[in-house]
Design goal:
Blueprint: E1 5-10, H1 19-32, E2 36-45, H2 47-58, E3 66-70, E4 76-84, H3 85-94, H4 99-114, H5 124-138
Parallel strand pairs: 1-2, 2-4
Antiparallel strand pairs: 3-4
Helix pairs in contact: 3-4, 4-5
């Protein structure tokens, strides 16, 4: 049975994305990391919402592009991922990337965290970026 990926919003309009195609992409990326999909929920939101979630659950007082809550067990990934579309837009401008590309990068970033890839320790950011780039290279082949 295929596990559903939920695509939700909180106080913001749903971005223009092909959720069926992205769901297939996420499944392929997870499989490349030896993982299968459990329930995944994406919640697209604004900066005020992500700040509230960051303060409430992580005791962090700053904006971020994604917060991933990991409910994975063994090789079956599961989690809730809050994505601030405001911060995604700001980041896209900062790195001079198209908004759509930055959004895809953040969407897969959460999945990569669920697959066990970290980005906070020494050298880990570069490893995460390499995995993000590899995942983005796969997307054109997903129909």
């Amino acid at each position: 049975m295929r596990n559903e990926i939920q695509w939700l919003t909180e106080d913001i309009a749903m971005p223009e994305i092909d959720t069926a195609r992205l769901s297939r992409w996420i499944e392929v990326v997870a499989a490349e990391h030896g993982r299968s999909l459990g329930p995944l929920t994406y919640i697209f939101c604004s900066d005020p919402v992500i700040l509230r979630v960051n303060r409430q659950f992580l005791n962090h007082d700053y904006f971020t592009d994604i917060i991933t809550f990991d409910y994975s067990r063994n090789t079956r990934i599961s989690g809730d991922m809050y994505i601030s579309l405001d911060t995604v837009e700001t980041n896209a401008i900062t790195v001079n990337a198209p908004y759509s590309t930055e959004l895809l990068r953040v969407i897969i970033h959460g999945v990569l965290h669920l697959c066990g890839i970290n980005d906070k320790g020494p050298g880990e950011r570069e490893i995460m970026e390499a995995h993000e780039n590899r995942a983005l290279e796969l997307l054109p082949s997903i129909v």
